[in-house]
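Go through this one:
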Amino acid sequence: MNPKKLLIMWLAILAVLAMAASACGNDDDAPATSEPEPTVATSEPDPEPEPTSEPEPEPTPREMQDVSLRLPWFPSAQFAGSYVAAAKGFFEEEGLSVTINPGGFDVNSITLVAAGSDDFGLHDTNSLLFAAVEEIPLVTVATYLHAHPGAIMSLESSGFESLSDLVGATIGFQEGGPWQLTQAMLTQNGVDPDSLNQVAVGFDLTPLFEGDIDLLTVFSTNEPVLAELQGFPVDVFIPYDYGVQTSANALFTTTSFRQDNPEVVCGMVRAMARGWQYAFDNPEEAVEIIVAVDPDNLTVEKEAASLEAVRSSVLSESALADGIGTMTAERWQTVDEVLRQYGGLEADIDLANVYDDYCF
């Protein structure tokens, strides 16, 4: 072969080998690439498990004490505190299962409590003082009508504007608290009770409506409401407003029951006070509760009016200051004085044995 051609061939082979070597250079010279590091989600460490505890034992049901309450009269809004306390569970919260028994014409709560037929009763403070004279072992623990509702009522058309206007008028009365308080009111305000013509009457309002009498002794929470509902506007003179300040709706029990069951007694006192407050805060509901007690004889219209009428007697200035049901020595002393002058009370009475305000 021609030496020149042979040289050219070897040069070509060497060039091809050089290019191949360059294309297959060392990988270490290339940029280092790698897969991205996986992102690890971090979180707060799991909380330590709370130590397990034994389940709390079921509370032992409270043992309920059965007691009864005897009213002095038929069911009505003037006993709203008792009925509302029962309906709203206030007695039950005090551990008491209370049976409320009605009063009536021939039902005397003082006699029944004294005999042990009932545990508690409601009655007028005047009558409880006479019970003390008879040495009946009773004690009053609250009075829910701070302002006694005993009063005298006249038709608005009579035109009586002041107590002095009553001189010469004919007054119908029933023996009892309202008449005794009326005499004290007249005397204390300069009017001789004997300057009025006095006629003993029953509970019928007809003599007043027909003009046979000019005035009638009443409870301001009842008869005036009835008269207004029958279309007879009336004026009412309440002794409490004229300086003869006594209380009514007294809750009482026997001295032995009070001594043996002090917490039961105070439970009754508290529950009934709550019942009264709830009744005035929720009058429509309270009236429904009352009417449901005796729907054949009670109406929403009358009981709503009666509840409003009794409001000022229960929520008096002293009740708002000291609490519903609280008592004062001054009011009890006034009862004593009124009875000595107009009720025939003669025996000495230690008032400290008649009432006890230890629940307040």
Remarks:
- The chain has 14 helices and ten strands.
